[in-house]
UniProtKB/TrEMBL annotation:
Protein name listed in UniProt: Flowering-promoting factor 1
Organism taxonomic ancestry: Eukaryota, Viridiplantae, Streptophyta, Embryophyta, Tracheophyta
Gene Ontology biological process terms in this record: regulation of flower development
Similarity remark: Belongs to the FPF1 family.
Organism of origin: Salix udensis
Length: 109
């Protein structure tokens, strides 16, 4: 049995096997990564790379060839992103937010 358990205030619970299909009439809300200082939505890896470079992140070429990776000389952090931007989802966005506090924010589109 896999899926998501939903709990309501009245104590009723139910299992939803595909929560994305049930929310918003058949599709889930799309998330976007926003660069707070400029207010711009990150719409490509080239724009994200420019922002990250300005924050001291550098491309890392020693890892998995299926990933875009960035590292900072001053930390042990590594940002790993799928090479295909269409697979860039909220999990990767929140990783960027956590490693760059007060610079990025994830919002519903």
């Amino acid at each position: 049995m896999s899926g998501v358990w939903f709990f309501k205030n009245n104590g009723v619970i139910r299992l939803v096997e595909n929560p994305a299909a049930e929310s918003n009439g058949g599709g889930s809300r799309r998330k976007v990564l926003v660069h707070l200082p400029s207010g711009q939505v990150v719409s490509s890896y080239s724009s994200l790379e420019q922002i990250l470079n300005g924050l001291g992140w550098e491309r890392y070429y020693g890892g998995d060839p299926d990933l875009f990776q960035f590292h900072k000389q001053s930390s042990i952090d590594l940002i790993s992103l799928p090479r295909d931007f269409s697979k860039f989802n909220s999990v990767y966005m929140y990783d960027i937010v956590i490693k760059n506090p007060n610079i990025f924010h994830v919002r519903d589109m």
